[in-house]
Amino acid sequence: MPEAQNPYANPVSTAVPLSPAEEKQWAVLTHVLGIFFGVISAAAFYFIYRDRGPFVKHHTATEWNFQLTLAVIHGVSFLLAFPLIIGATLPGTSSDTFFVAWAIYMVVYLLNFVLRIVALVLGIRAAVAANRGSFYTYPSFRFVKVA
């Protein structure tokens, strides 16, 4: 009896390649939905479309890198600012300490707000570049290799 061949021994992508127009369409949608849904939509688009064409792979990877970078920055700022507020509200804390903690929290909050505005502008620029058929790379950390 011949030995059964392992289907996982030589993985081959079974994804059907997209046409250039479809690649452009999904690349634009990746950036637009990234503005509203962040890292969730970026990850979904990356895992669904990364093997469907080089143009859409580049745009989904760069969007996911950017959204992961934003998530890390927001997470770090929360971890730095939140304990200040908790510590400032404990009984026996002086009013000066309370004021300084709230001031630092408000600065972090405003910086996060500005970061979201910058993300909106860059997301629109990336969507316009994808619609023109050009490659666009966000200023971000590289968590995923961009083709």
TrEMBL record:
Domain of life (superkingdom): Bacteria
Record flagged with keyword Membrane: yes
TM spans (from-to): 26-49, 70-90, 102-124
InterPro entries: MamF_MmsF (IPR019109)
Residues in the signal sequence: none
Annotated localization: Membrane
Keyword Metal-binding: no
Protein name: Tic20 family protein
Organism: Antiquaquibacter oligotrophicus
